[in-house]
């Protein structure tokens, strides 16, 4: 698979594009396009318009793709693209890696608490499916870290052995 362009960072954030993503993150990464990879949002013009507003107010281009649309599009992308990908969950990133998309760094931004999830950090909660997908990333030598915004404390995720899920 011949991949053009460069994925600078992938952020997992169940809110997708909001002030932190459109502002401090996009600015600090020196990217020229913000890409939302989410099957549902790729088909939802209202959600797209809301996220476009945030991106435009921060002077960054934004594009929306389903997982498979992105896999096809990146193979034909401009080699000068520096992309900041935003996804809703770790399973999406694991799927992209499984499909051969080269991903180097993943920021675990906001993965809110839901029933059955346990804390990985103050703002990142995982269930067993999340942990399995995260382990796939770690096994593929993807660097994973927890960090709210650039310049704040960055916690590397290197192991998940301390997590104990109820059976």
Report on this structure:
32% of the residues lie in helices and 24% in strands. The chain has one domain: Fructose Permease (3-Layer(aba) Sandwich), CATH 3.40.35. With 167 residues, the protein is an alpha/beta fold. Strand 6 and strand 7 form a beta hairpin. Helix 4 packs parallel to helix 5. The chain has 5 helices and 9 strands; from the N terminus they run E-H-E-H-E-H-E-H-E-E-E-H-E-E. The strands form 2 sheets. Strands 3-2-4-1-5-8-9 form a 7-stranded mixed β-sheet, sandwiched between helices. It has a two-stranded antiparallel ribbon with strand order 6-7. It is globular, with a radius of gyration of 15 Å.
Summarize the structure.
The chain is α/β, with parallel strands linked by helices and 167 residues long. The protein has helices at residues 19-29, 45-57, 67-75, 90-98, 128-139; strands spanning 6-13, 33-37, 62-65, 82-87, 105-110, 118-119, 125-126, 143-146, 155-157.
